[in-house]
Amino acid sequence: MDLDQIRQNARHNAAAGIFAAMSSEEKSQQLLAQVRVQSDAMIDFSARHEGIPADQLEIYRAMVRGQDNPFNDELSLVDNLLKAGDVILSTGNTTGAKIITKGQKFGYKHARSSHVALVHADFVCVDAMPSLGVSNRLVSDVLSDVKPDWRVIRCKKLGSEHLDSIYQACAFYLAQPYKILPSKKPMKAAAYCSELVRKVFLHTGVMGIGIPNDSVLSPGKFDELADNHQQWEDVTEQVRPAIEFCLKYHELMSIASRLMIEGLKLNRKRFEDRKAQIKEIQLAASKGTIPREKAKELIKSIREIETNMNHQFWDHSK
């Protein structure tokens, strides 16, 4: 087991402990009380570990102690501006981004985006990146090294009835490997940025929005949708205050969003654990350690648990 895996296991265990505490009102209150009585020195040590800027240290202390603070005040002004399913279009500053942008102009002469990401919930996106594969990233991470002409577009056909589908699809594709393999059909076991957005929208079942299911899809296609398709609207100025807030409080927002991100990672880990359990049961049955009928019964009960979970994952969905 490498160091990264050890760290990830530690995060899983920490998340599991927090969720266990949250399941009980009494334990939840006890945990909050323990956190809030920490000394300034203890909180400041945690702040340094989290990379909190010095000018936001007082805000962090207040957040930890559940006190009024500017972060919460400003958050209340921009909450819900970003919607699940919003698409963020951006142009990177790298040579590779320039090549992508230039190459797309053969398909659409006004193409300018080299990357797209999808808002999963609040300030958290689902994104496909070369080194990370498909993962959750903050809006501020998505826009950390891009040209200033980024924009956000919204599908007019997406309504509240589609939110669950968006949430589930964004979670479903987490941890897919990144692979640029131009394909007319959606790839089942890999994704790149615009391909990921296509798969999530296909999952919603919303039709007539200009996202093709039978041709290669590049980021520039979303520029074309933004410019010309009647079912898409540019909401950049509408959501700009929310994005500027996230950029301003990047480190604090990372902490505020951690429960969601780590919770989904923990869900995936539990799917992996159940998959391993099934293999162990099958192996035991093949060796005669347990009766085959008992093995079938155990595997059936595990499958039933997975069927009833709120989230499914692409590599554990069978």
Automatic annotation (TrEMBL):
Query: Gene3D superfamilies, alphabetically?
Result: endopeptidase domain like (from Nostoc punctiforme)
Report the protein name in the record. Answer: Uncharacterized protein
